[in-house]
Every structure is written in structure tokens, then in C-alpha cells.
Fold this protein.
Amino acid sequence: MTAQHELRLLPWAGPEGKPCYLDTDDREGYMSRLADHIEAVQLGMAAELLGQSVQVLDDETEDLEKMSLVAAQLAGALRDVLRVATSRGHRLETPE
């Protein structure tokens, strides 16, 4: 569980790409639930993209432009998944 003094890293970036944080202990509050929902969507989209990208990369007839687009999408998905993992890792209960 998040300690009272810790901030939750949110699954989206703020202005200029800077991280956004939530200062609350209410895991059932609107912003916490919104962040949970966005995390679930991001993870689902990353899983779907992974499946599609494997197909594109396995197809030797695909052009460089399509592969470049897939690489850009994978980089964005990886950024999102790493943010979710970091946020969840910070919220794990640590033994005292």
C-alpha cells in the first residue's frame, strides 16, 4: 500500500512530457479509479500491439514505412507499460 507521504505516478504525462503525480490515500477516489482504468487500457493496447507487430515483423514483404510505424507504436507502448510498472512497484507493500 502507498504510504501517506508517497505520491502515485499517474499513467499519463503532463505538459512538456513531465510526469504527473496524485497525492491521495483514497484508492477508491475518482482520480485513482481513472488512473486504474487508463492503466488497464494501456496494458491491453500494448498486448494487442505486440500481437500485431509480430505479424508485421514476420512478413518479409512489409515495407520500411510500415515497420517504422510499428517501431514507433511499440516505443510508445513500452513507455506506457514502464510507467505503469514503475507506479505499481512504488505502491507495493514493503516489509518493515
